[in-house]
């Protein structure tokens, strides 16, 4: 690979990272705190690219120093480096969406392990309270008594279950990046199922006794299901 | 670079292609981006979309760590003198191996950063066995990983202790194995000596760029394979063997190898394998940071494929054995 091409691939990868971090699209792939590391990394890659890009048309055989023509048949970097173009193409051409119902349904058989949320929502039986899905699942596994008679609002996308009418309000949780995503699912009862991946707000109450263990998801008896827009960061 | 003087037409064409490679590649990419507007809907299957998301996620997550790794490794190459290293590490490699393992606590990064650092430590004259011990220990025993393990296994501090002990043990045992193999380990270490005659700053940048270009292609390949496993192999498939003690351990160990998760978040995935024994979960946590498809790919790039063919199986086997032993003892 020529030096100029090396510089080009570095610059494009740096641009991808910068573009993702500055537009906020990085939240589709990684957690929020990665934003500034990505910006710094993008700038560093552009800085690394500058030298070889500027020297792209200098003859490479004469310089000898900066060029690394050793032990790879004189080509400087291994052929595998061409693969660097792949993430660039994927980012710009496919621009992959956030994870949705496909992976959630695929992983539906897994048990939902939730740790105790750091901040608990203040519940008030007199009104509908928005509750994050992981907290709802945790409360159900905790015996469910704190949810008794409490109208809640759950937000997530729609994924389907095995039965012909089964559906879940779903969020994906990521620890580090989308590779370790796990679904949090709450089954919705008493409401016809919307189309897959539609974001919805579900109002309802916990069905007592459901979701008491990690093996089965809790259920909510829905009083209202409203389509809504996806939030900025879709992962919990 | 080939300095062919032959002027046959074919050579001349190839030469012209090489001379204008930048423009050709840039043109091809632009064409792809334009074509992508029409191509993208055709590629819109949920499987391909999920693969792309996971693939790009692994690359986006790993690249900053790899850049951190090549910067640290460039700093080691250029700023750290061999004398300083010799003073920090014990003279006898047998003792230096466990010291390197414990030193892994100090690098709170993921495994991608560790590979270029290890290579540059070797170029600085650190014994390969010692540097490889650091490579195995650093992603597994650093505080960030231990804290996330504690969060994922609430009320089970023995899991954190077991992970620390088993990972450190794996690193040290493999280190001693490398020491015993000595020169019979077929390792290729790239020659140092970029940019002689340039200023320190430029040499630093050239070294970092060189290391990055060498490692990143292998990282992309590993990410692609891991994303495919993530997308096309449902995790529930491994649940069928959860009840069997030995097969359960081997299955989760193999799974850790192919899914190639970040060591800082793999504990959450391990915790979700509720049907498996704690020892099997421990095997998942010990094998993953020490060896996975992404690391193996990067090690082929850094140390040669002949080396990786010996090193990779030994690390996996040692990690499984250590996890089984420590699991039986502590869990």
UniProtKB/TrEMBL annotation, chain A:
Keywords, in A-Z order: Membrane, Transmembrane, Transmembrane helix
Top-rank lineage group of the source organism: Bacteria
Signal peptide: none
Domain DUF1980 residues, every copy: 6-108, 148-235
Region annotation (Disordered) ranges: 189-236
Composition bias type Low complexity, residue spans: 212-236
Sequence intervals crossing the membrane: 33-55
Protein name as annotated: TIGR03943 family protein
Automatic annotation (TrEMBL), chain B:
Main location as per UniProt: membrane
Subcellular localization, as worded in the UniProt entry: Cell membrane
Record-annotated membrane-spanning stretches: none
Pfam families: ArsP_1
Gene Ontology CC, one term: plasma membrane
Membrane topology recorded in Swiss-Prot or TrEMBL: Multi-pass membrane protein
Domain of life of the native organism: Bacteria
Keywords from the named record: Cell membrane, Membrane, Transmembrane, Transmembrane helix
Family annotation (InterPro entries): DUF318, UPF0718
Family: Belongs to the UPF0718 family.
Listed name of the protein: Permease
Taxonomic source organism: Nocardioides lianchengensis
